[in-house]
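Course assignment 3, question 2. Fill in each field.
Student: A.L.
Task: Predict the tertiary structure for the chain below.
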Amino acid sequence: MTLHEADVLVVGAGPVGLTTAMDLQARGARVVIAEIRRYAEPPSVKCNHVAARTMERFRTLGVAQKLRHAGLPADYPNDVVFRTSVCGAELTRIPIPGRAERYTSKEGPDTGGRRRSRRTASTRSTSNRSCWNTPRACRA
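Answer field:
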């Protein structure tokens, strides 16, 4: 058995444990991660989406681009399809282009360019609450 000296022991090498370990290490803590999975054993992946706030943390930690490129191939479409059953007739399709076509902006947090405001100029609000450019913005 090997003895490791650390400031923090993180139990579990899932998404939360690894992100916590990266964050603590970036802040100068010595971290050891304990995981029951054997070395090189593939994880039991349950995630198919990463939220915007989580991507902000990954950008801060410097791993956002690596994570983005670790998923589906860049030219793989992300269409949403509605069918009568799993193998049934297609009712409709919402085309969503792959990463190669979607992430071509020269501005924004992942490009090193100027960041656009999330608030639109045409937004009108009668109160002091924020009104963001979302599909259901400013509904009471």
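Instructor remarks: DSSP finds four helices and four strands in the chain. Residues 15-26 form the longest helix (12 residues).
Grade: pending
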